[in-house]
Amino acid sequence: MNRTFKTDCIGYALFAILLLVVIPWAVSFDGFALNTYARYLALGMVAMALALSWGYAGILNLGQAVPFALGAYIMAMHLKLQASAHMPGGLPDFMGWTNVEALPWFWQPFHSLPVTLIAGIAVPVALAALLAVFMFRGRITGVFVAIITLAFLVAVQLVFIEEQRYTGGQNGLTGLAPLQLLGWRVDNYSTQFYYLVAVCLMTSLAIGLALVRSKVGLVLKAIREDASRVRFFGYDVARYETLAFCTSAAIAGWAGMLYVLVLEFASPTYMGVAFSLAIVIWCAVGGRESLVAAALGGIIVNLLEGRLSDMFVDGWTFFLGALFIVVVLVAPRGLFGLVQSAVRHAGKTIRSERGGARARWLATGMGARRIDNGGR
Amino acid sequence: MGHLELKNLSVQFGGLKAVNNLDLSVAQGELRCLLGPNGAGKSTTLDLICGKTAATSGQILFEGRDITGLSEHRRARLGIGRKFQTPSVFKELTVLENMEIARSQNPGILASGFVFRTHIRGRLKEVLELVELKDHVHTKAGNLSHGQTQWLEIAMLLIQDAKLILMDEPTAGMTIQETRRTGEIFNSLKGHHTMIVVEHDMTFVRQIAETVTVMELGALLAQGSIEEIENDPKVRAAYLGNEVANHA
Ligand SMILES: Nc1ncnc2c1ncn2[C@@H]1O[C@H](COP(=O)(O)OP(=O)(O)OP(=O)(O)O)[C@@H](O)[C@H]1O
Ligand SMILES: [Mg+2]
């Protein structure tokens, strides 16, 4: 705990410079490019959220897309209502097509922006807490957690696709109004918007770091290694696991809200199995032991996807799968692990070179003088 | 009434009664040695006390309170600490981080959220010096020698400051000197902590023993001072060709 603090600060500062200075300059503040990067940042944020539960507490959540998509849908519902203000009864267009007569009660609260912003985090957290209590009180671990969260993901997606009257079904929610935030009409192709997303990512990262660098993070690491031993020291393991799981869901929901602002639509693919597994891959590529690395993993892989999928349209998914296999086989700790061992190695070489230089110096100057003294 | 009381305690694994109608009373501040041949049910008895295994029947009273149905972490919070037969430290964590986990007087999430540093001072410093790990605080526990790992777990129990300490073969794998030091530490804990120590090393048992309890096949075989036990024909029969017979 004491020692890693400096590394964290450096990593965080470098990441902040990358996000706030390097990227905007590199694309010369071009609105279109900044929108693309804002998308990568939102995805990096959800990868970082996964590292919180998977990397630290060993909870492999294959349903990380659920809180993300819930955040996205909640934001989209608000924007859809804004866009439908002139419609009869303020009813969204797709509801009219499916003969819904009045706005359902669970759509009503999202007229209000504050309610939307709170719900975009609170609803994913509440759902995560429900699942967490069931799993962690029941001491379900490892691969069973993966299976349950995956099943949960599939079930939630099914509900959203089936309930077309209320959710827009397969089409999702489109034709959204731009967000009005404190009198500011948010333009998702503006520099300000990019900075809004970047600041959200940096803030959530700071919260995550504070959590994992406190004793909570230490207890989570201990739980990952041997949960039952932790219990014999008096810690309520299920509570700690629930906290990690819910914080992760909160950040994912937050990222989902931003994602809708970037893309201007919400789709059931956000809670698809492919997308949810992709989050796991980003996190693994970056390195799940570090929040900054996981966020970078999300940004880098998506950047690559942006570049490569232009060249090989269908080949991309294949490439992503291959990338995951390579990472698991060659660098199971991701880019973070590679960098860490490189730094250690460099440190050792420098130290041994210094040692060598001193030995030579001793053998020549100092050594000779000693012999002189001895002769006297 | 004892600090810890086991009443008619039993546990059954399939057809095997690993602990069979065991009655045991340990007084406040007493150090009780628990002996018995391999498979006698000593570790299982400690498992029952700390909550690792649920009893099939019977009662466990700690400070007069029935704890038979409590979960592990609740028992730990009441003041029961356990050292396992195979050293159970967190190998991925450093020595200091292990100690921070063991320093669990405030195990709640809220309290943990505000701890960012482990200061090496006060009791923590004393304990680290006592077990000679002060120069290794930043070493990963996985890189310690076997003896040091045993020491670390003992240190963790000392800093946990449990009222009742359950030690399962604490000196296994230690050198003769290390074993002696452990005995000295245990002797210094007498009166402050109630302890149950499972051991096979009779030299060590002689160094620390007050009352000795011997188990066989999950049941109580004999109880008394070390001399009484060593001269007990039932015990000699149970250990036939085993250590007690050799030493006596
Ligand atoms: N979880 C379990 N499931 C089934 N059988 C068990 C379990 N735990 C212990 N046993 C059995 O219960 C009996 C008592 O085991 P225990 O570990 O308590 O013995 P012990 O006195 O500690 O022996 P040792 O000196 O070898 O450590 C053994 O026969 C063991 O095989
Ligand atoms: Mg045993």
Commentary on this structure:
The complex is a heterodimer of chains A (376) and B (248). Chain A is mainly α and 376 residues long. Chain A has a single domain (3-332), classed as Orthogonal Bundle (ABC transporter involved in vitamin B12 uptake, BtuC), CATH 1.10.3470. Helix content of chain A is 75%, strand content 1%. In chain A, strands 1-2 form a two-stranded antiparallel sheet. In chain A, helix 3 (65-83) runs antiparallel to helix 5. The longest helix of chain A has 42 residues, at 334-375. Chain A is globular and about 75 Å long. Residues 360-376 of chain A have low confidence and may be disordered. Chain B is of the alpha/beta class. Chain B folds into two domains: 1-79 and 164-170 and 196-248, 3-Layer(aba) Sandwich (Rossmann fold), CATH 3.40.50; 84-161, no CATH class. Chain B contains eleven helices and ten strands. In chain B, the strands form two sheets. In chain B, strands 6-7-8-3-9-10 form a six-stranded mixed β-sheet, with helices on both faces. A four-stranded antiparallel β-sheet of chain B has the order 2-1-4-5, covered by helices on one side. In chain B, helix 3 (95-102) packs parallel to helix 6 and helix 7 (176-189) runs parallel beside helix 8. Chain B is globular. Chain B starts with a strand and ends with a helix. The mean pLDDT of chain B is 90. The chains are: A mainly alpha (376), B alpha/beta (248). Adenosine-5'-triphosphate binds at residues 13, 16, 18, 36, 38-44, 85 of chain B. Adenosine-5'-triphosphate (ATP) binds at residues 13, 16, 18, 36, 38-44, 85 of chain B.
CATH architecture of chain A: Orthogonal Bundle
Give the overall silhouette of chain B.
globular
Helix percentage range of chain B: 25-40%
| Mean pLDDT level of chain B | 90
**Total beta strand runs of chain A:** 2
**Global outline of chain A:** globular
Q: Please tell me how large the radius of gyration of chain B is.
A: 18 Å
Beginning-to-end CA distance, first to last residue of chain B: 33 Å
Number of separate strands of chain B: 10
How many domains of chain A? The number is 1
List the uncertain runs of chain B: none
| pLDDT averaged over residues of chain A | 87
Note the main sheet of chain A.
2 strands, antiparallel
Protein structure class of chain B: alpha/beta
For this structure, what is the CATH class of the largest domain in chain B?
Alpha Beta
N- to C-terminal distance of chain A: 54 Å
How many discrete structural domains of chain B? 2
Transmembrane segments (chain A): 12-34, 113-136, 143-161, 193-212, 242-262, 315-336
Pfam families (chain A): BPD_transp_2
Main location (chain A): membrane
Keywords (chain A): Cell membrane, Membrane, Transmembrane, Transmembrane helix
